Amino acid sequence: MERRGFMAAMGTVTAAQAFPLEANAAESMHPARYKAPEASTAHCVSAGEGCLRHCLGMLRMRDTSMVACADVSYQMITACGALRTAASVNVPAFARGVAQVCVDCQKECAKFPDVECKACGASCETGGAECRRVAA
Questions:
Q1: Residue of higher predicted confidence among 59 and 17
Q2: What domains can be seen in the chain, in order of their start residue?
Q3: Which residues fall within 8 angstroms of residue 117, CB to CB, at 6 or more apart?
Q4: For the segment 109-122, what is each residue's pLDDT rounded down to a tens digit?
């Protein structure tokens, strides 16, 4: 970095330290309106990854009984991940569609209550309800 660039950067840092923004002021300017859907979809993604890991492990053992579960959990992970990102910037544009994906995943996971799918199904139930609430 050249000396001028360095000095300009230091001046910016010094000015920012001299006039700090209050943390509450910045939050009140653009509050997060969709914290619950963001949190519930993040939990769905986490639980869905565990379910998908189990399903793929079963497929590696040549057991195809969980192929449909792997399919819907992958769809749910993708949809909830996208909604989580959108909700974090206050844009829950497709919450109704994600709610349906969660319902589908929950139904499929209910077929396998003794493995990782149980946690995924419970998470999808909560996430789907939250998405329906936002979409209404």
A1: 59
A2: 34-135 (1.20.1270.360)
A3: 51, 54, 55, 66, 69, 73, 108, 109, 111
A4: 999 888 788 889 99
